Amino acid sequence: MMPKSALSFPSSAANTVLLQIGDLPMGSYEIAPAQALETAIRFKKEGRMQGVKLEGGKEMVPTIEKIVGVGIPVLGHVGLTPQRRDILGGFRVQGKTAASAAKILDDALALQAAGCFAIVVEAVPAEVASFITQKLSIPTIGIGAGNGCSGQVLVQVDMTGNFPPGRRIPKFVKQYGNVWSESFRAIETYRDEVRSRQYPAPEHTYEMPRQEFERFVETAKDV
């Protein structure tokens, strides 16, 4: 599945289906379609995944066709592709010009034709992502791509606030909680109660009958 991510589709979806999708790591699928297929099979057999996700556009068509051809579902990924961020100049919004938006659409259509069951659209202007969604016959999953996509995904660490203060988070992330602060508060309270011996209290301690303890002390007094 997409590591540490929360995937959600609008409530209009009639049925909810849980899919375990393995995100193929960089270096495990780019060399050749045969390498990608071998990795996908391992994800399915050893990782118990129901499908795999990989990044890239038209250049990945032979790879996707190879994997889908043996019956393994593939989730595509266009727009900002994090594994290729260095060649993109870092984590930058994609599709801000007519030419680059057209390339993303072209890539998405190619992935659809290759057999992808859905496509992640990341860090793309909302109007572009919405237009692409309308042009496709398969669902889009937006992340930083507006609310016009078929569904949404957020990294769990980001959305729950499970990171230290000062960490930069993308503009599109909405923080729904503050797990880090609550965890830190709990740990500090634990530390203070241990130092003051408030913890463990009697309710956290196993009991022994007084008579048995006295018998134990008597038998062990010369030890």
UniProtKB/TrEMBL annotation:
Keyword Ligase: no
Domain of life: Eukaryota
Keywords, alphabetical: Pantothenate biosynthesis, Transferase
Pfam families: Pantoate_transf
Matching InterPro entries: Pantoate_hydroxy_MeTrfase, Pyrv/PenolPyrv_kinase-like_dom, Pyrv_kinase-like_dom_sf
Pathway: Cofactor biosynthesis; (R)-pantothenate biosynthesis; (R)-pantoate from 3-methyl-2-oxobutanoate: step 1/2
GO cellular component entries: mitochondrion
Molecular function in Gene Ontology: 3-methyl-2-oxobutanoate hydroxymethyltransferase activity; magnesium ion binding
Function field: Catalyzes the reversible reaction in which hydroxymethyl group from 5,10-methylenetetrahydrofolate is transferred onto alpha-ketoisovalerate to form ketopantoate.
PANTHER family: 3-METHYL-2-OXOBUTANOATE HYDROXYMETHYLTRANSFERASE
The protein's name in its UniProt record: 3-methyl-2-oxobutanoate hydroxymethyltransferase
